[in-house]
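Q: Hi! Curious about what EpsG family protein looks like structurally. Here's the sequence.
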Amino acid sequence: MSSNAYWYIGLSIISLIVLAIALARAKSVRAVFLVLIMTQMAYLIETVIYIYCGSYFYHPGFLKDSTYYDSNMGALASNMLVIPTAALVIAVYRLRLRGIAAAIALIGAIEWLWVRLDLYTLYWWRIGYTAIGLAMYFPLTRIVYNRLHRPVRGVLHSLLLFLCIAPILGTLHIVPIMLFMNRDYAPGLFSDPAHDTTTFASVYYLVMTLIIVTAMKMRRGGAWMKAVVIVLLILAVQGVLLAMGLLHIHARWDPWYYCLFPTCVFLALKPVSARLARGG
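A: Let's find out. The predicted structure is below.
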């Protein structure tokens, strides 16, 4: 593990401490929902600018076998911890313009320091773009948090449910690949296999999330019957991807893991749908 890793670990620990304090202050499950929703929004933005458009590159020094997967680890630290934690603090403590501006300035200062220390490389991206993006992202946090107070129905309910579930599925999907190289995807969009795999995975987990949200919203059929259908559907998708040469599996446990963890997420998070519908 390189010296860069200690900076990322330190920032992650600080974020986790602040996150725990904010969640304790909120004393509400909607704070957890907000973290998940804002994490997925950060994931979606990062998918476009980082994965597809090559905006920047992280250098945490956690993984030696693949620089791109190592960069992904840095992206996770930012989008799963730092940014959602700041968003939660703004919502829970009801920070207004000055507080939001201070949060943006702090994140900008960290980004500048990371560049100076060669922990992070900017390509076409600029720190000013981060500030502009956060100036839209953070006010939205308060809107979402306040909306979670009230019952949610229809399309908005489906959207918020999707945003709650997707970051869990996405993280559980890509992290084993980065750590164990148990599978790779080959859509042929990028020359680096890790970049190619990350690109396909960024779409794959969204499709799986849509399937799970659809199953949750369906009134007919019991939970366990739907769980079996999800397993069979994922097995069928994996079979098609293998036959097309888009998927290569390198570990015996891989097919079972990728069939079972979405099903477990479905069963564990099914109550989230009802809680969103109730609000509060």
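A: A fun detail: The chain has a mean pLDDT of 95.
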